[in-house]
Amino acid sequence: MEPASAHAGAPAPNAFTDGLGVRRRTTDPVRHEPIELLCLRGELTAVPSFEFALRERVSHLAGFRRACFGAVRSVERLKSPPSQLVLVSDVTAGVRLSDLLAFAEKADVPLDIDAALCLLRQIVPAVAMLHEQVPEIAHGAIAAERIVVTPNARITMVEYVLGAALAELQYTRERYWKELRVALPGTSGPVAFNHRSDVAQLGAH
Q1: How much is the pTM?
Q2: ∠ CA 34-36-39 to the nearest 5 degrees?
Q3: Beta strands across the sheet bearing 72-77
Q4: Is residue 41 within 8 Å of residue 19, measured between CB atoms?
């Protein structure tokens, strides 16, 4: 499979963009299946150790397949734009939680507490499952932007392989939040991406 044949170009009207980059949907030229490319921002991939850490984490979690986690396929380089780093995942049907919240705010729709609790009852056990089954791994990027609500109101955690790569950026806590929407606990020590940071991210969202 070579998503390098895909053309990034300008963001499509329905492309989802956040501090990590732009997501685009295309077709796997070998399997002829829909895939999603997270085209990572150049500012992130300019850090030499970012790509290595991302590839290592994707390889480490290659056998981790759960219904509440969107399947990650690989890390690739696009041909156009030249050498842009992309995270290749299966397409998850649904709407990102951040889009749902933005729509509710724009339409002045009050948030239903039962709906919120329903989502939380899925998100918290999903993260706990990751911690239990891969104890040395933390998600690292839990946010409404990276949670998809499926048509049957189930949640799918996506882009859960980024924690190690994000740690290589060595930003301040404030910069992680402002630029990437990544919350980290306030401590006197250095920034760390671990189970505690995952709990902080759950609390922040």
Answers
A1: 0.86
A2: 150
A3: 16-18, 21-27, 34-40, 85-90, 72-77
A4: yes
Q: Exposure of 156 by Cβ count < 10 A (0-12 exposed, 13-18 middle, 19+ buried)? A: buried
The b/e string for 27-50 (b: 16+ C-beta within 10 A; e otherwise) is: ebeeeeeebbbbbbbeebbeeeeb
Picking from 88, 93, 70, the residue whose alpha carbon sits closest to that of residue 29 is 88
Going from the C-alpha of 196 to that of each of 31, 45, 127, 188, the distances in angstroms are: 39, 25, 11, 14
On whether the CB atoms of residues 152 and 44 are closer than 8 A, the answer is no
* H-type alpha helices, 18-172: 42-45, 48-60, 97-106, 113-133, 163-167
Mean pLDDT of 89-105: 91
Q: Is the dihedral of CA 88, 95, 102, 200 positive or negative?
A: negative
- Per-residue pLDDT at 204: 81
Confidence (pLDDT) at 10: 42
> Which tokens sit at 74?
């690989």
Over residues 7-27, mean pLDDT: 74
Question: Which amino acid is residue 56, in one-letter code?
Answer: E
